[in-house]
Amino acid sequence: MSAPRYFQVKMALQDRLAALAEGSSLPPERALAEELGTSRTTLRKALAELAAEGRLRRTQGSGNYVAPPKIVPVRQLTSLTEDLASMGLTTSAKVLEIEKVRAGDELATIFGVTPAASVWRLNRLRLVDGAPLALEIAHLPGSLRDLPQRLSEHGSLYTTLRTAYGRRIATVEDAVEVALVDPNEAELLDVGVGQPGLLIHRTGRDESGEVIEWTRSLYRGDRFKFVATATVQA
Fold first, then answer.
1. Whether 209 and 129 share a structural domain
2. Distance in angstroms (rounded) separating the CA atoms of residues 193 and 213
3. What rounded mean pLDDT belongs to the chain?
4. Domain that holds residue 155
5. CA distances, 132 to each of 90, 159, 191 (Å)
6. What is the mean pLDDT of residues 108-120?
7. C-alpha to C-alpha distance for 46 and 233, rounded to whole angstroms
8. Angle 40-52/29-36 helices, nearest 10 degrees?
9. How many domains does the chain have?
């Protein structure tokens, strides 16, 4: 059985993109459809899939461009700031909200505290070279006195925890799944509503096994690829 026509067009476009430099533009859709011998409807379906996969960047009223390569942090025990800095990328974070909140039942179970206990809630938009990459909501137990000021001084959350509070993440567990971006998330991440994103729930523990971080991170699916490395025992 032959592949669907749109998939054949997609593969032809994928080969073309691989031969072009980042930021290069494709011909206008009408010319591209004629060149590939297909309808514009079929072409647009192929272009939409390539855009969702992060291979193509579509700009309304401007055209279609080769997307930059996906960002690939690979170390699980370092912060996003440290991972991307090691790749020569400039990271920054916009704090959307930082406050103490009631733990409630879910966080009480995670941190081993009472539902009435206070925990820190830190909501940030993570940027790389000025472009949105992820929405991150971190919950942290304990008093962590002057956390907003300490975080402002150190930038990285993990650096702040180590330097200002003597808390070091020793082990992490990451639960990874695909999630569709809602309207509010889409506006902050500068993507289309309903676009697939990579959702990671991280539980971080110190050397004694105590949970000291629980974070929900939603990454742009077109800009991020998660890679985990493990050692296999013989």
1. yes
2. 29
3. 85
4. 80-220
5. 12, 22, 9
6. 95
7. 42
8. 110
9. 2
| Two structure tokens written together for 63 | 């055209």
Residue 231 pLDDT class (50, 70, 90 cuts): low
For the residues 105-117, what does the mean pLDDT come to? Answer: 95
Indicate if 113 and 152 belong to the same structural domain: yes
Instruction: Give residue 168's pLDDT.
Output: 93
> In the numeric block, which tokens belong to residue 105?
């039942």
Give the residue with greater pLDDT, 13 vs 52.
13
* CA atoms within a 13 Å half-sphere pointing along the CA-CB vector of 106: 5
Answer yes or no: are the C-beta atoms of 9 and 42 closer than 8 Å.
yes
pLDDT at 86 over 70: no
57 forms beta bridges with: 65
Give the rounded percent of residues in the chain with a pLDDT score beyond 90: 40
- pTM to 2 decimal places: 0.70
- Residue 84 sits in the same domain as residue 195: yes
What is the identity of the amino acid at 49?
E
Instruction: Please provide the DSSP assignment of the chain as one string.
Output: -PPPHHHHHHHHHHHHHHTS-TTPBPPPHHHHHHHHT--HHHHHHHHHHHHHTTSEEEETTTEEEEPPPPB----TTS-HHHHHHTTT--EEEEEEEEEEEE-HHHHHHHHTS-TTSEEEEEEEEEEETTEEEEEEEEEEES--TTHHHHHHHH-SHHHHHHHHH-----EEEEEEEEEEPPHHHHHHHTS-TT-EEEEEEEEEE-TTS-EEEEEEEEEETTTB------PPP-
